[in-house]
Design goal:
- The complex is a heterodimer.
- Chain A is α+β, with helices and mostly antiparallel strands.
- Helices cover 56% and strands 23% of the residues of chain A.
- Chain A starts with 6 loop residues before the first helix and ends with a strand.
- Chain B has a four-stranded antiparallel beta sheet.
- Helices cover 55% and strands 25% of the residues of chain B.
- Chain B is an alpha+beta fold.
- Chain B has two domains: 57 residues; 99 residues, Gyrase A, domain 2.
- Chain B is built from five helices and four strands.
- Chain B is rod-shaped, with a radius of gyration of 53 Å.
- In chain B, a hairpin with a 2-residue loop joins β3 and β4.
- The chains are: A alpha+beta, B alpha+beta.
- The interface between A and B is large, with 69 and 71 residues.
- β3 of chain A pairs antiparallel with β1 of chain B.
Chain lengths: 188, 220
């Protein structure tokens, strides 16, 4: 049965093989290849977006949890901010101190601003340290002790840094008291 | 032997040759392969379209979610900063030094035969608290009365503060006599320097009830 291929048949066979090779080349390079590349690109994008979505979900969850946990902190922060009045401290702090000591039955109380400075801590960059001198020219030791206890309890952002008590020579029942205090006040 | 003649021999040969034509067979194979390839391509294209629709769905949900995520990230940053600020403020509040308990302690240490004429106290973050007390003491031995005050201060302040040092800066006898309980007693002037670290922190004194009116009435 083995018959030799004629010259014409070999030519046709060669032509068919060339056609086949060409078809395979065109198919893989111009059709299937770009399609698979685009599919791989899209799969990468999907993985990337999915990753972003997962991170975003985590972020939202974390934010909700943090918000829940920070409720106390936020309430505390609001409360601490409310301690200080609005406006320039020089406008409201001296009258407040005067009325505070008046409530403590110390009538003569004068508060003077000595200066203000930035705080070193980064977390408190929005706050300023105000240094005050509070002069109580006529009071007594017991009364001022009680008043200082009240002041320390009611003003958590105020620290007394210096205290000076001197007996008044001509009125031995009174003492002259000077306090240097530092208060933290939020920048406005 | 019978003679067998095949007159169609040439025609049959031609027909066989036509059937075995390599070009025709090649074309048939090509068409077959092409069909398979087309089907495979179509399957791939279908899957690609499916992936594209998945991608656009994810893109849509991302674009929906993105503003809220950005807002959440901003909120997280703000909350973290706020938490740090509150912690720093709490540290500041907790590390305050309270003067009222100190004044109360000093007042409790002062005996009837001693008197304070001045008290100066300063607070330093690094050095701690330093207080200077000036006063006079009276008694048969006024120096001993002043020493009693020094010891009492050292003992009482040592309960609540650390590294307490109470030292005389000066202690001198005075020429004047004072009437104490009907007897004339000599006096001594003292100057005490107190240094301590407010490490073992004292609690703020609870505000005592107002006794001002009663005191007024008593004095009347």
């Amino acid at each position: 049965m083995s018959q030799k291929l004629s010259k014409d048949q070999i030519k046709k066979l060669g032509l068919s093989i060339i056609g086949f090779v060409f078809l395979v080349y065109v198919y893989f390079n111009f059709f299937l290849g770009p399609l698979q590349r685009s599919r791989a690109d899209m799969l990468n994008k999907i993985a990337d977006r999915q990753n972003k979505l997962d991170t975003a979900q985590e972020e939202l969850h974390k934010s909700a949890k943090l918000e829940q946990n920070a409720k106390d902190g936020m309430a505390r922060f609001t409360a601490l901010r409310k301690i200080n009045a609005e406006g320039a401290p020089l406008a409201w702090f001296p009258p407040r101190i005067k009325s505070f000591f008046a409530n403590e039955q110390i009538d003569k109380a004068v508060a003077r601003l000595e200066g203000s400075s930035e705080l070193k801590q980064e977390e408190l960059s929005a706050w300023l340290r105000y240094n005050w001198v509070i002069d109580l020219p006529q009071t007594d030791y017991v009364m001022v002790g009680r008043a200082i206890a009240d002041l320390e309890n009611s003003e958590p952002l105020l620290v007394i840094t210096r205290l000076s008590i001197h007996a008044t020579p001509d009125q031995p029942q009174f003492q002259h008291i000077e306090l240097a205090a530092t208060s933290l006040i939020e920048k406005k | 032997m019978a003679l067998h003649l095949n007159l169609l021999h040439e025609e049959i040969l031609e027909q066989r040759q036509r059937q075995r034509d390599p070009l025709k067979l090649g074309l048939l194979a090509l068409i077959g392969c092409g069909t398979l390839m087309f089907m495979y391509y179509s399957w791939n294209a279908y899957r690609t379209l499916e992936i594209r629709s998945r991608l656009s769905a994810i893109d849509r949900s991302w674009s929906k979610m993105e503003p809220s995520v950005t807002a959440a990230q901003k909120k997280v940053t703000e909350l973290q900063a706020l938490t740090k600020t509150v912690r720093a403020l709490d540290d500041y509040i907790d590390s305050r030094f309270f003067w009222a308990p100190l004044l109360q302690k000093i007042a409790r240490c002062v005996a009837p035969n001693t008197q304070l004429t001045s008290l100066d106290g300063t607070l330093d973050d690094a050095k701690g608290a330093s207080i200077t007390i000036e006063g006079v003491a009276a008694g048969r031995e006024p120096r001993a009365a002043a020493e009693d005050l020094r010891q009492m201060l050292s003992e009482q302040l040592g309960h609540d503060y650390s590294e307490v040092k109470v030292e005389f800066k000066s202690l001198e006898d005075l020429d004047t006599l004072v009437n104490l309980g009907g007897t004339h007693m000599p006096m001594a002037r003292y100057n005490l320097a107190i240094i301590f670290k407010p490490g073992a922190q004292a609690k703020p004194t609870p505000t005592p009830p107002q006794t001002r009116n009663r005191r007024k009435r008593d004095s009347e």
